[in-house]
Design brief:
- This protein has helices at 3-9, 38-48, 87-99, 111-120, 137-146, 164-173, 185-241, 248-263, 276-285, 298-301, 309-316, 318-333, 340-349, 370-385, 396-405, 413-421, 423-432, 436-444, and strands at residues 13-15, 21-23, 79-83, 104-108, 125-129, 155-159, 177-180.
- With 445 residues, it is an alpha/beta fold.
- It has three domains: 3-72, no CATH class; 75-212, Rossmann fold, CATH 3.40.50; 242-444, Hypothetical protein af1432, CATH 1.10.3210.
- The radius of gyration is 35 Å and the shape is elongated.
């Protein structure tokens, strides 16, 4: 039984035993089995193929159809345009179409009038004569197919021409079908019914696709939010272990994005930073650069003084610990091209130096991943302007000067140049994400 869905199609009808319908005003309607109703068959087929969204349990037959499909369910709501220069033909077609339940029928007497109507009104089907004064049916059809808003409107040609070349010309112009004159009303109605049902199915699928695309975007936004929250939670773990760093992870991710945007047009970096998505993945990855510090003992991580050589060797292992943690996460995600690839590169290599004197591998030059080269400059700049147990905070100008001094030794020369060019931007970021105690001190001053 399809009682719930039948009511959605014809609000004046109520189900009754035997598969027929009784009108709400008490008069008996034409007895048709629910399964035979063309709308029911169409929607049931779409539902079985999982192309139709329903809002209840038990399949199409026992549910209300999703609101997005409501406008497709009534035959009377379909709009048809009849284009013919012969008034008798137009009158005959209009009367026949009304008998099949179509109520919204417009008439145009030539191609220009038809195109004017199509500019103002959306039609579900056009019945188009070929031989008309002015522009003929072929030209009219080609012009309406050239416009995006009418390109998908089905056109059935009505023609007295019977040779194959003319029929091919009709299809090449964009027609979906043709009817040979003199017109046979039963043939016309059968073709119209078929193409309106096809148009209805396409509309349903189009709306369904729009709904699905919206769902995908919504789910992606939800996933993005969860992903970003997870990253910040993981990064904050390392931050809580090292209470000197404050807003370090927020500042450095903004430095990295600014650097990536600045160098992306450089010939050396264009291929690696080809699109905005890559820049955003670097931005998201940056907070995880020191995640490995979670594994460093407190007496070393929080030591209020210079580390011994042995302690420094242990401190250096935070790069390997961070990489291993991210590799494990990558394995769970089974997504080697995800943002975690950049997080892994950054965590493992951001202490490498351009001249090969860094750690953990002693990589040099282009062997250091670009993501890590960007992070190295951002990390050092922020460490220089921040208070540490072993040093005071350096002024912004001195930090920029030290970055300049490290050009070609500590830092990729072009990345160092970008930091210098972005000096004001870096300073703005540092002020915007200043640690709370620094903000209070500045406000008090």
């Amino acid at each position: 039984m399809m009682s719930g869905l039948y009511r959605a199609v014809d609000k004046k009808a109520t189900p009754r035993r035997g598969g027929g319908a009784t009108r709400a005003d008490g008069r008996a309607g034409r007895s048709v089995g629910y399964s035979r109703h063309p709308d029911m068959r169409l929607l049931d087929t779409l539902a079985r193929r999982k192309l139709l969204v329903v809002t209840g349990k038990g399949g199409v037959g026992k549910t209300a159809v999703s609101a997005v499909l409501g406008r497709h369910l009534a035959q009377a709501g379909r709009r048809v345009l009849v284009v013919d220069d012969n008034p008798l033909n137009c009158d005959l077609l209009v009367r026949r179409l009304r008998r099949m339940g179509l109520e919204r029928i417009d008439v145009a007497n030539d191609g220009d009038e038809a195109l004017d109507r199509l500019r103002e009104t959306a039609y579900d089907l056009v019945l188009l004569d070929v031989m008309m004064p002015g522009i003929d049916g072929f030209t009219t059809c080609r012009r309406l197919k050239e416009r995006a808003v009418t390109a998908r409107t089905p056109v059935i040609f009505m023609t007295a021409l019977t040779d194959t070349a003319e029929k091919l010309k009709a299809f090449e112009a964009g027609a979906v079908d043709y009817i040979t004159k003199p017109i046979s009303p039963p043939i016309v109605l059968a073709r119209v019914r078929t193409h309106l049902q096809l148009k209805r199915a396409r509309d349903i699928l189009s709306d369904q696709n729009v709904w699905l695309e919206g769902e995908v975007r919504r789910r992606m936004r939800e996933l993005q939010t969860v992903q970003d929250a997870t990253i910040m939670a993981m990064a904050s773990l390392a931050e809580t272990r090292d209470n000197e760093t404050g807003n370090h992870i927020r500042r450095t991710q903004h430095y990295v994005r600014a650097l990536a945007l600045a160098v992306r047009e450089h010939p050396r970096f264009r291929a690696d930073l080809a699109d905005d998505a890559t820049v955003e993945m670097l931005y998201k990855s940056a907070p995880l650069h020191d995640i490995g510090k979670v594994g460093i003992p407190d007496h070393i991580l929080l030591k209020p003084g210079k580390l011994t050589d042995a302690e420094f060797e242990i401190m250096k292992t935070h790069t390997t610990l961070g990489r291993d943690a991210i590799v494990a996460a990558e394995a769970l995600l089974a997504a080697p091209d995800s943002f975690l690839r950049y997080a892994r590169e950054i965590a493992y290599c951001h202490h490498e130096k351009w001249d090969g004197s860094g750690y953990p591998q002693g990589l040099a030059g282009e062997a250091i991943p670009l993501s890590a080269r960007l992070m190295a400059a951002a990390d050092v700049y922020d460490a220089l302007i921040s208070v540490r147990v072993y040093k005071p905070a350096y002024p912004h100008e001195r930090a920029i000067a030290l970055i300049r001094d490290g050009r070609g030794t500590h830092f990729d020369p072009d990345v160092a140049d970008a930091v210098i060019d972005l000096a004001d931007t870096f300073n703005d970021i540092a002020v915007r994400f200043a640690d709370e105690d620094e903000t209070l001190a500045r406000d008090a001053g």
